[in-house]
Write a structure and sequence with these properties.
By secondary structure, this protein is mainly alpha-helical. It is built from 3 helices and no strands. Helix 1 runs antiparallel to helix 2. About 0% of the residues are buried.
């Protein structure tokens, strides 16, 4: 099986899995970026909306995938 390294340079090929923030971290980041001039009522509504949107999105997870390309033979394509 392949080692996932370039045959000449030996460098790793492909991308590593991304590290996604947890829902709590996402919510905290968005709340920290809110406008400081919001009234307490408006801020509460905005925070509730942010929490609802993050919960609806669910947790992001990385997935492994492969990309295959198949070429038909030239003699078959002539037919």
């Amino acid at each position: 099986m392949s080692t996932g390294c370039g045959p000449i340079t030996g460098d790793k090929l492909g991308l590593s899995f991304p590290a996604y923030k947890s829902q709590d971290e996402q919510i905290k980041t968005q709340i920290a970026g809110l406008d400081q001039t919001l009234t307490p009522g408006a801020k509460g509504e905005t925070v509730a909306q942010i929490v609802a949107e993050e919960i609806a999105q669910g947790t992001r997870r990385a997935a492994t995938g492969f990309d295959f390309t198949f070429l038909i033979l030239k003699s078959a394509s002539v037919l």
